[in-house]
Structure formats: structure tokens, C-alpha cells
């Protein structure tokens, strides 16, 4: 009998950022990241104003208080434009015109020079139901496969909605009671009424509804038993405990506050796995490797044999590498939360049976992804295409930023990601018994650490009695830094050294 894998969640908060990691047998399967400052706009509902309408594009551009106007397609049928007194449905539909104030919800995040994509078909997400306040529709998760259960849940959802409204039944509803579904449906309706009430007086650009913060979304959407939940921040720990109490399949006893001297991700052997996600090259178990390259329009993944020479003929060597690559690709797109169009350039295979087998394997492993994936047949050039629904910020937007030295066409490690690594090294320094830490780094990054207050919580907490000095160098590359410990009572440092906070 196959041993069940050990499933664990790790939550931490530092440098103005929340990070959540899901592992199976201490191998990272999923990573989520969110800024404390503004969080994730995906799913947020804004009171917007129509800035202009472009008939040739069948689109309207809506001002929602973001850096760029949001894109609202006009070809998705009659708009569900409800007034703020709660009216909705066919009687409330009207043609859009410039200057109209409307409620829109973010469907796709802004990307590159493109603004966010929004819709007027609002939805409020719960654990078992998604409430559609102005869409006459009933749907159910494809993962609920029992015909009798599907029919029963759809009938129950139909009873809970009013005219012109709808529900989508989520996978978690399969084991939910009728009472739970009713309580949640009423709760989601109250949220929507609150949105309408807020929108009456809110200025244009206000987020009248925000999707849950990262820990809440994770605890709401994750299913199945977990072995443990580890949290590296006291405030975040209390929040996760509160959420765990509401989950009968989790319970607060499984939530553990990390109190070790080293950083939590280092203590549990996850730091290096996280750092590897900033690399464009990914090693395969047999010595082959992937190269992942993202553009504004799509992501391209190239498969290479690398050091793998195989044991038989060339075709078998290539076939085995491509099979391994298909499995690792499914893992990497989930890990890095890569969305949109993904093109995979597999190594050329002469035999059609091998091409079909690799194609089938890619489709099979993508089926386990929580985000919807759609695959297309591999062509004769051994190039396969698939799409993956964007759910929130790709991990690369946290780890990387445009390189200032190559007309912004390349990328370097981001300030907040470098600060996270420096923080971990400082903690390790103190865990070794040093009373002081000296960091030499790029001058721009040093200025950002002070201006953004990346380490302010640590200085007020565990570093209160420690000495930390930063020395900025204008000649250092953006990614270059060193961290060293020191026990001297008096440190010999250059004049430009600055005491951290």
C-alpha cells in the first residue's frame, strides 16, 4: 500500500510581505505571496467610472483608481448593471456611456502595460458556494462526479437563489450539509448588500469589496487533512488559529508558532527550494533540464537532455527526458503560479507513439492543478501548448524586477526578495551566537530597506538588543551582498555605515 504523503502549510510575514508555502513530504508544491500594503486586487470589486468606449475593440475602459484604466469587454452579452439601491436583472440593464459609474470586479490582474480586466458579472466566493448576485446561472464543480450528488446539490442551490441570481457549487460542497449551504448563502448575500450600501456614497476608485487576505483564502480553499500548520509570525499565528477553529478538518492543535532561533523556512529546509524558484533553469532528476522564459504575451519552456545520455538509443533517451519534463512542468507552473498561454518545446521525437504518450502525460499531470488548464495537441515539431487560468500574482513578480541596465528587457532579483534573503542570513548570524551583523550591499537596495521599513518589525522584536549595520556600495550589482557576524565590543566600520533603524 502506498504511504500517504505528509501535507503541511507554512505561513510567515516579513519585509511587508506575507508568504505561504504548501509542501508534501517537505517538497514545495505551492507558493503564495501577498504584500501587506495592498494585497492582491484579483476578485476585488471597485466603484468605477467609464473613461471611454472603443467600439472597434468592443471594449470600455474604466477608471478604478489603479495606475492604468481597467479593460471591460463589451461582447459578453447584455451587461448586468445594477443601480446602487440593489436593483438588478433585465430591468436594470442599459447601454454604457462615458461618465457612467458602475461596479466592476477584477477578473485578470494588470500585466506589463495592460490594465486589469474587469467584469460587471460580480461574484462573491465562499468555501462551498460562489454567489452570483446579478447572473441567472447555476453551475457545479467538475470535480464532483457522482451524478446523484450533482443533481442534489444543484437542486439545493436553486432553492437558495432569488430571481436573476445564481450560484456555482464548489468542490467543498460535496460533504456539506443543507444547513451549512443555507448559512453560507445568506452570509454571501449580506456581503453583497453591504457592497451596494458602501457604493452609494463611496468615491470613484474605491474598493467596495476586497477578496480575503492570503491566509484566509488559503484556509478557505484548501481541502483535505493536513499534518501541521507552521507560522513564523505571532500576529499571523493568532489569525491562523482563529481560522483553524472554524475548520473541523484542521483544528487549532495543528497550528504551531515557530520559536526557533533560525528562520522558519531555513529550519524546515525550505529556503533553498524557495530560492530556486527565481532561477530560469530547472534541473530534472535524470540530468536534463528546463529553461523557463516569460514574455508579456506568453511563457515558453524549453526541454533539454543536458547531461543525460541514456542507456539505449537516442529516441529512448529523448522520450524518457520528455516524460520527466512533462511532470516537472506541471509542478513548476503551479509552484510559480504561471498563467496565460504556455508553449513547451519538447525535444524532437521521431515516433508518433512517443509524441502521443508525452502529450497524454502532460494532460494527465495538469489535471491535478487547482487552476483550470486547457491543453492542445502536440504538433509535428514537438511543441505543445496549454493555457492556465491566472489566479493571482505570478511568483516572478515578487522575486524579479526589470533590469535597469538592459533597457528593462531582462530581469534581476527584486528588492523585497533580496531583503527576504538578507533577513534570513541575519537571523542565521544571530543563531550562531553573534551579537552584531554587518551587511554590505548595493546602495540603492540599502536605501530601499530604510525607506520601506523592511526590517522594522524584526528590530522592534527579536533584534531589539542586537547591532546591525548596513554599508551601501554604489559599485555593487543590485543582487550583490554579504552578511557577516561579529562579536567585537567596538566595530571598525567605514564612515558610511548606517545602524539599522
Describe it for me?
- This protein has 501 residues and is α+β, with helices and mostly antiparallel strands.
- The chain is globular.
- The protein folds into 4 domains: 95 residues, 2-Layer Sandwich (Nucleotidyltransferase, domain 5), CATH 3.30.420.40; 165 residues, no CATH class; 110 residues, Aminopeptidase, CATH 3.40.630; 86 residues, no CATH class.
- The strands form 6 sheets. Strands 4, 5, 6, 7, 8 and 13 form a 6-stranded antiparallel β-sheet that branches. The protein has a 6-stranded mixed β-sheet with strand order 16-17-18-19-21-20, with helices on one face.
- It has 12 helices and 27 strands.
- The longest helix is centred in the middle third of the chain and has 24 residues.
- A hairpin with a 4-residue loop joins strand 4 and strand 5.
- About 3% of the residues have low confidence.
Number of helices: 12
- Quick one: how many beta strands? 27
Radius of gyration: 25 Å
Our measurement of the CA-to-CA distance between the termini, rounded to an integer number of angstroms, reads 56 Å
Quaternary organisation of the protein chains = single chain
Please indicate the count of domains: 4
Helical residue percent?
Answer: 25-40%
Integer average pLDDT: 87
- Shape descriptor reads globular
Biggest pleated-sheet summary: 6 strands, antiparallel
